[in-house]
C-alpha cells in the first residue's frame, strides 16, 4: 500500500497524504513514501510541489506525528533522524516552492509541516493546533523556530502554551496561511498561483527561496552554549514522569494525570 498519492504534471506536482486509518498521521511509512516522491520530483525538475491530504470522514488534514512511534522515555522524541525531521528538511530543501493546501484540521507535528511550507492556502474549514503540551512532549528548537519565524513570538507562545486550535480567520491574520478560500474554490485558486509561479524564470524562483531561507535562518543563529542549555531543558521533560504519562494515556485513550515531575 502506498501511503501517499503522487502526481507529476510538467513543472507542477501534487503529493497527498494517504493514511486514512490513522487520519493521515505522519508515520514512518507515510514519511518514507513522501520523501521518496519529493526526491523523484527533484530529479524530474518539478518547480512547484503541492502538499495535500486525502479526505477522510473526520475532515482531518493530518493528525500529526504517529504517537505510537514515539519513544517511551529517556530518549529525544524528536531527534535529528526522526522521520518527521527528515520530512521537514525534505520540504525545506526542495528547490522550488512547496505549497500547503489545507482542508480541515491540522494537528501537532502536521502543523509544523505546514509552517515549513513556503506558501499555505486553506479553505474555511481549516484549523491549526500545535499540541506537544497535551502529550508532555518537549518540542525541538528548530520546530519552535518555524513558528516564531512565521507568526511571531506572542502568537507562537499562545499556540504552544494552550495547544488549542486556531481557526482559519485567525490563521490568516497571524500569517499561518497566505489566503483563505471557499471550499469549492481552493484547488482552482491554488493551481492559479502555481501556474503564475511556473510562468516565471525557474532559477530566479529557486534562488529566491534559498536566499529567503538562508536569511531567515541567519537571524535565529545561536551560540553553542545556548543550544546545549536548550537540549538540557528538553531532556528534563522527556526523562520525566509526565512525558511517560502523556504517551501512555494517549495509547490507552484516557485523560492524562500530570504531576509536574
- Could you tell me the mean pLDDT? 88
Low-confidence segments, ≥5 residues, pLDDT <50? none
- Give the helix level as a range of percent: 40-55%
Beta strand count:
10
Number of helices: 11
SSE order in H/E notation?
EEHEEHEEHEEHHHEHEHHHH
- CA-atom Rg in angstroms: 18 Å
What would you say about this model in short?
With 261 residues, this protein is an alpha/beta fold. Helices cover 48% and strands 16% of the residues. The strands form 2 sheets. A 6-stranded mixed beta sheet has the order 1-2-3-5-7-10, with helices on both faces. It has a 4-stranded mixed beta sheet with strand order 4-6-8-9.
Q: How would you describe this structure to a colleague?
A:
With 261 residues, the chain is an alpha/beta fold. The chain has a domain at 4-185: 2-enoyl-CoA Hydratase, Chain A, domain 1 (Alpha-Beta Complex). The chain has helices at residues 28-43, 83-93, 109-116, 132-135, 141-151, 153-162, 168-174, 186-198, 202-219, 224-238, 241-251; strands spanning 4-9, 12-17, 48-53, 60-62, 98-102, 105-107, 119-123, 127-129, 166-167, 179-181. The strands form two sheets. A six-stranded mixed sheet has the order 1-2-3-5-7-10, sandwiched between helices. It has a four-stranded mixed sheet with strand order 4-6-8-9. Strand 2, helix 1 (28-43) and strand 3 (48-53) form a beta-alpha-beta unit. Helix 1 runs parallel beside helix 2 (83-93) and helix 2 (83-93) packs parallel to helix 3.
Amino acid at each position: 500500500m502506498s501511503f501517499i498519492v503522487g502526481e507529476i504534471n510538467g513543472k507542477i506536482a501534487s503529493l497527498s497524504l494517504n493514511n486514512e486509518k490513522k487520519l493521515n498521521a505522519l508515520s514512518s511509512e507515510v514519511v518514507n513514501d513522501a520523501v521518496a516522491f519529493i526526491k523523484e520530483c527533484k530529479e524530474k525538475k518539478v518547480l512547484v510541489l503541492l502538499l495535500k491530504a486525502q479526505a477522510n470522514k473526520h475532515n482531518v488534514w493530518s493528525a500529526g506525528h504517529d504517537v505510537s512511534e514515539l519513544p517511551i522515555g529517556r530518549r529525544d522524541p524528536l531527534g535529528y533522524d526522526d522521520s518527521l525531521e527528515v520530512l521537514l528538511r525534505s520540504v525545506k530543501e526542495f528547490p522550488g516552492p512547496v505549497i500547503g493546501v489545507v482542508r480541515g484540521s491540522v494537528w501537532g507535528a502536521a502543523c509544523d509541516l505546514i509552517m515549513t511550507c513556503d506558501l499555505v492556502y486553506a479553505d474555511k474549514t481549516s484549523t491549526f493546533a500545535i499540541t506537544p503540551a497535551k502529550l508532555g512532549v518537549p518540542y525541538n528548537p528548530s520546530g519552535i523556530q518555524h513558528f516564531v519565524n512565521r507568526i511571531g513570538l506572542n502568537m507562537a507562545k499562545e499556540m504552544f502554551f494552550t495547544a488549542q486550535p486556531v481557526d482559519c480567520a485567525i490563521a490568516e491574520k497571524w500569517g499561518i496561511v497566505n489566503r483563505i478560500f471557499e471550499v469549492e474554490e481552493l484547488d482552482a485558486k491554488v493551481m492559479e498561483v502555481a501556474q503564475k509561479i511556473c510562468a516565471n524564470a525557474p532559477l530566479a524562483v529557486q534562488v529566491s527561496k534559498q536566499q529567503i531561507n538562508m536569511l531567515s535562518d541567519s537571524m535565529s543563529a545561536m551560540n553553542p552554549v545556548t543550544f546545549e542549555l536548550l537540549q538540557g531543558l528538553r531532556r528534563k521533560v522527556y526523562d520525566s514522569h509526565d512525558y511517560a504519562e502523556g504517551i501512555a494515556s494517549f495509547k490507552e485513550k484516557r485523560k492524562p494525570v500530570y504531576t509536574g515531575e
